Amino acid sequence: MQVRFGVMCSGLTFPKWQANAIEMLLALDGVECALLIVDGREAKNKEEGGWRLLKTVPFRNYLWLGYSWFLKRRSVAEKPTTLQHLFAKVPSVKVEPYRKGKFTELFSDEDVQQIEEYNLDFILRFGFGIIRGDILNAARHGVWSFHHDDEQTYRGGPPCFWEIYHRDRVTGAILQRLTDRLDAGIVLRKGYLKTKGRYLKNRDQLFLESSRWPALVCRNLLDGYSPSTQRAPSETSAPIYHAPTNSQFLRYLFLALFSTVRSIYRGLLYVDLWNIGVVEAPIEEFLKSEKPEPVKWFPLQGKERFVADPFWLKSSGGSQGKRTLLYEEFFYRRGKGSILRAEYLDGGFTAEREVISATHHLSYPFLFEWDGETYMIPETWEAGEVALYRATAFPESWEKVSVLIPNFAGVDSTIINYNGYFWVYTVDKKDGPHYNLKLFFAKDIAGEWHPHPQNPVKTDIRSVRPAGTPFLYEGELYRPAMDYSEKIEGRIQINRVIELTTTTYREEVVQIVNPYVNSEFPDKIHTLCAGEGETLIDGCREVLILTNPGLIRYKLKTIADLLR
Length: 564
Hints:
The protein is of the alpha+beta class and 564 residues long. The protein is 21% helix and 39% strand. The longest helix is centred in the middle third of the chain and has 24 residues, at 246-269. The model has no long low-confidence stretch (mean pLDDT 93).
């Protein structure tokens, strides 16, 4: 199948994020840019220069105008990038739409007819204003346009600013197919990132991350699936925002300064002290609004180490109810984790012993059984692979049997067997490990593993990184994931999987699991592991480093590594 697309633009030079989007589209097999639709008014506007803009902006917005001009020269996402080498042989049409009302721009019938003759599958809008009319249907799958905010919360602009002003935890963005109704596009792709305290960083991260979305939606077209025909137009009553006034801008500067100071303070003076525990309730109880209690915590002594990421086999009850669990042990002075095992019996933990150690960091020892064998997938991102281990004498002895995903810095990789395939949920340490969900699948655990064509299948800082065992309940599949929106690994959101195929993926959040705030470890939670009538969890207490010399050394080493 061939896919032909057009680009609405002002010329052959694009902001970096738009150039990235076009280059990723052209990197797909069977995809070509067949037409440039150039705004003929741009040259006239440039001739009139910046004085025209200055005269049209009210005095109350002057601070924002100056700040925007200052930032544009420092933005990575807005860096001018020429694509002349890619478009040298691409035909172009120059059009000058006419105004209807104050903002709407319409294309003439002649221009629309000329564009239709190029038989385009979609048009990517990187130019013009608010367009309506027949041009929206001049391509088979319409005109695709970005809105860099959550359309359910913010309309208007500036993009990615008001989330900082209102101290929102996340900033959203959408790629939509435009319709003839304002702010009622068909959402093709949507994502959320953690709101940065400074505007330039917040905007750049959204612009650059979302630039991959047109290529991901285009892959759907190549697979014969059109999202725009499967979904209804968005409905929103969100307020329309405009450029901040001078007083609003000054408040933003204060908030940005406060956010920076707070981040430095928390980052320098506190570390996470994790511990593991058992809740005597099945994992599906966490789907309820009131999470089960109490927690029986591991008897962690001192502040030299933490334990986290606990796993056991759902059917691992041994003699007299004894259960074996594996987990990460992390000594601050070493700066890396190893895998330990312990026994749980009658509300107590015993027999702690190391089972796997390596020169690189190990954590998240995900356990599962298949075909009479016991397997483990530990986190080994520093080794650049997702490796499979088999127990030769559970739980003491393990052998590495294969590398499921080579040359991939997988974090918290989690495997399930579902609908005739093995699926690995994971994140890439080098590509948005807190917000980009990656899927891999294989027919057989020892067979060839394939990346999902929609990777990342989901972009959301609140509900992506795996946080324990997926589970079936009343015929539906659920998946715990970490929520990074307020704190790093602060809480868990449980997703219900709606659609899981080799070409599509959808899930929705159905429950939030907050930390056990009245316990010894009240600040964070990031693992749920199912057992028979019991659930393994972990919890965290944020500890002031001044309470322990070892914590001070660990924090100084961490800062030094970041500065290298």
